[in-house]
Amino acid sequence: MKNSIMKYILIVSLLMNFSLLGTAAYTHYRQARYHHHTAPSLGQGGIRGAHAPCGPGMFFEALSLKPEQVKLFRQKATAFHKDLDKKRQEVDGLRVSLLALMRADNPDGEAIRATIARINKEQEEIQKAVVSHMLEFKSMLDRDQQKKFMVMIEGAMGEGKETACP
Questions:
Q1: E strands along 27-155, which residues?
Q2: How is the chain split among helix, strand and coil, in percent rounded to 5?
């Protein structure tokens, strides 16, 4: 009798351990996926380290910016990327909504089209904001810095990477 109770307790204990391991693995997967889709924080040079065309913190140095330019650009970059991250999170939320609509037993085609239209609108606004920010940044540079800046942007776009403007 005691032997069967011990076996029962062992089985319950193993099931609990497996469920805890499964939960931990799932949580890790979700967190890793979330962090992969959200942009990293600003690096030392005022740009995103993972997307920097010259490595983390090297963007401003590669352009040979003056100290007052660096200070101004870091301030602008921080505010810009904060807003951009917020917009990207909105798009991510819309994509989650789209997937939920698609998972339905009887997907609502009109709702799906409307969600796709909203995603497209948000992405267009993001693209406009990025271009506007890049042009503003470019306008504050001298001729030599502008050439370097455009070469860096062109290189990032040519490699299919997210452009790394400050």
A1: none
A2: 75, 0, 20
Alpha-carbon distances of 101 from 29, 37, 95, rounded to whole Å: 23, 21, 10
123 close to 95: Cβ distance less than 8 angstroms: no
**DSSP 8-state secondary structure symbol assigned to residue 38:** S
Question: Domain 41-158 adopts which CATH fold?
Answer: Four Helix Bundle (Hemerythrin (Met), subunit A) (1.20.120)
Convert the pLDDT of each residue in 35-67 to its tens digit: 444 433 334 344 444 444 444 356 777 788 888
Question: What is the tens place of the pLDDT at every residue in 107-158?
Answer: 999 999 999 999 999 999 999 999 999 899 899 888 988 888 888 888 777 7
Burial class, 6, CB count within 10 angstroms (exposed 0-12 / middle 13-18 / buried 19+): exposed
User: Can you read off the two tokens belonging to residue 41?
Assistant: 């924080």
> Is the whole model's pTM more than 0.85, yes or no?
no
Q: Report CA 113 to chain centroid distance, whole Å.
A: 24
- The SS3 assignment for 48 reads strand
Cα 41 to chain centroid, rounded:
9
